[in-house]
Amino acid sequence: MSWIRSSKSAALVVLLALSLTTVGSAGAISVAPGDAPDEVRVGETVTTTVTIEDPFVDMPDQWTLQGSTKLENVSWTVTVLQQGDQVNQTVYGEQSFEQELDASSGGDTIEVEITGDAPPVDNYTYHPRETFTLYDFDTVQGSSTSDLNASEVHHYTNASRDARLAIEDAEAAINETGGNSDAEAQRDRAVSAYENSNFGNAESLAGDAQSQAEQAQQSAQQTQTLLMAAGALLVVLLVGGGIYYWRANQDEPTKLQ
Question: Which residue, 16, 119, 177, 256, is the most exposed by fewest CB within 10 angstroms?
């Protein structure tokens, strides 16, 4: 029985080692996103570089790199490097590209520089924030396509940004009060106006919501102050009455006197 148990244990150890080896070697392609803004104004130029390391580790000797973006007036510069030396460089001018990669040509690093202008906002949404695809990379092997890396960036106009900031200020004021139904209803109207691209009205409604929340907070603070003052006055009256009663009893002559 002990031999059977030890055999089973050994088999489990071998299987575990194989599984760990498989997990450790999977997905060896490394993608390092470049510096990209968290948000960008519509029409503003954006530039970032994505670095792909070890493109042929655990990959076939030939595969296709696909890239796409929602940037406008876009330019892709794809540079293949071998130990830091340039193997080749290709420039693309459309919103998407495909580049065949071949291990026989060399290349242990691929750098993709993307430059373009932030696109208009198709649909304004307060939450979640409006975003566009800065880049989306896929690997293609025959008829199989796999996601490699992607990035989304918030975009805005000056008017939409001002309206959003006004709504955020209103929400902060509402949260400080612990909630106020009138202010919350006005905030909801501001959000609705924002999502209908009526930014001037959204900013005005948000300002009203903030004022209502602040007034409610001031009213609550005044009520609390009055209650504290009333409580303090009551304490003073009770203490004063007690002292008066005590003194009155002290001055009253006793029967022995």
Answer: 256
